[in-house]
Amino acid sequence: MNRIVARLKRRAKRRHSVRKNIFGMPSRPRMTITRTGKNVYVQIIDDTAGKTVASASTIEKGNRQPQGSNCAAAAQIGTRIAEKAKEAGVDTVVFDRNGYKFHGRVKALADAAREGGLKF
């Protein structure tokens, strides 16, 4: 249990150090990612208004993937969030990796969102 608590504390420290320099404005909202063992969630947030502009996740009805294909699912969510952002009129965002390392699912989602037309 101590090892898990220490890992969560390290992630919280990274998250706060990254988050103190990132702020989403209406012209350039913040795109934040959250990942669990099974799912990936992403939101585009306008911090000045405190509103979520667009969101996508692997638990949505059309985005479910078979177990064991997490990077493929994250890439699919990246393209889906890019589509939803375009519908909402957002083309540039600030990427908030939320304390996670930029590899694996986080990188797959970011690359797919860039290919979908988001700039960050």
List its salient traits.
single chain; 120 residues; alpha+beta
Quick structural gist:
The chain has 120 residues and is α+β, with helices and mostly antiparallel strands. It is 40% helix and 19% strand.
Task: Summarize the topology.
Blueprint (H helix, E strand, L loop, with lengths): L1 H18 L10 E6 L4 E7 L4 E7 L12 H19 L5 E3 L8 H11 L5
Parallel strand pairs: 1-4
Antiparallel strand pairs: 1-2, 2-3
Helix pairs in contact: 2-3
Q: Could you walk me through the main structural features you see in this protein, from its secondary elements to its overall organization?
A:
- The chain is of the alpha+beta class and 120 residues long.
- The protein has a single domain, classed as 2-Layer Sandwich (Nucleotidyltransferase, domain 5), CATH 3.30.420.100.
- 40% of the residues lie in helices and 19% in strands.
- It has three helices and four strands.
- Strand 2 (40-46) and strand 3 form a beta hairpin.
- Helix 2 packs parallel to helix 3.
- The longest helix is centred in the middle third of the chain and has 19 residues, at 70-88.
- The model has no long low-confidence stretch (mean pLDDT 90).
